[in-house]
Design a protein that fits this description.
Elements lengths: L1 H5 L6 H18 L7 H26 L6 H20 L4 H30 L2 H19 L7 H38 L15 E2 L5 E2 L1 H7 L11 H7 L4
Antiparallel strand pairs: 1-2
Length: 243
């Protein structure tokens, strides 16, 4: 939220804030510290995590300045329908419901992570690669350990670790965005734009302060270009010493 306050032009950061809060609440429910039935705290934790994960991916998508489209709504409704069906099956078919819920979560993570990694390779952005890679490892972890039993404390600890890595990656994405904007602004400053008032006789250029500058020095100060002087064939024929 602090980063959102600083970077008012960025979109998606508020999604992440709510997502991390919901995921934290999911871990609270799954810890079993609240005196409610195991089925109740599992379902509440699953609902919190599901909402958090969807907002996490939606925030990453919006952060990339993408606009939502109709097919996004269709995919979201389909995911929610399958999620709701799996929760409804939890009482009678707990194992199948658990596998479906983990499968949906893994699919969401792997899809979002792969999109971010592909984008990160194109832009050479550290944050995008870290966030995308963390989500992909997180999704793979959910799939693998659906069939392999490990200590529950270790399992929960690894989940929190992937969560923290994803958070670091998303903060780094913000830093990458600031760096890219700064580099773009610098390049724009170094590029000559607009109409240049130039003297028809001596070819000096007038700046915003109404001062006149030699053409070469004006361009060198406002771009990455440098001048080396020579003589063209026409001028050579016109001004050669033997004439």
């Amino acid at each position: 939220l602090v980063l959102r306050k600083i970077n008012k032009d960025e979109t998606g950061l508020e999604y992440w804030s709510v997502a991390f809060f919901l995921n934290s609440m999911g871990f609270v429910f799954w810890a079993g510290a609240i005196p409610i039935s195991p089925r109740a705290f599992y379902i509440l934790g699953e609902l919190s995590h599901a909402a958090g994960f969807i907002l996490l991916v939606a925030g990453a998508y919006r952060f990339g300045a993408h606009q939502y489209k109709l097919w996004h709504l269709i995919v979201l409704c389909s995911l929610l329908a399958v999620w709701g069906l799996a929760l409804a099956m939890f009482r009678t078919h707990a194992i199948i419901a658990g596998l479906v819920l983990r499968g949906l979560r893994a699919f969401l993570f792997l899809l979002a992570g792969s999109m971010l990694v592909i984008k990160g390779r194109k832009e050479k952005a550290i944050g995008t690669n870290l966030a995308g890679g963390s989500l992909m490892v997180w999704g793979s972890f959910v799939v693998v350990f659906s069939f392999i039993r490990i200590n529950i404390n270790l399992f929960q600890g690894l989940l929190v670790g992937f969560h923290i890595l994803s958070a670091f990656g998303m903060v780094a994405m913000i830093m990458d965005s600031i760096r890219i904007r700064a580099e773009t602004s610098q390049k724009q400053l170094e590029t000559l734009q607009g109409i240049l008032p130039i003297c028809a006789y001596c070819k000096k250029i007038r700046d915003d302060q109404n001062k006149w500058h030699v053409l070469e020095s004006y361009i060198e100060k406002r771009s990455e270009a440098e001048f080396s002087h020579g003589i063209c064939p026409e001028c050579f024929d016109k001004h050669r010493p033997d004439k």
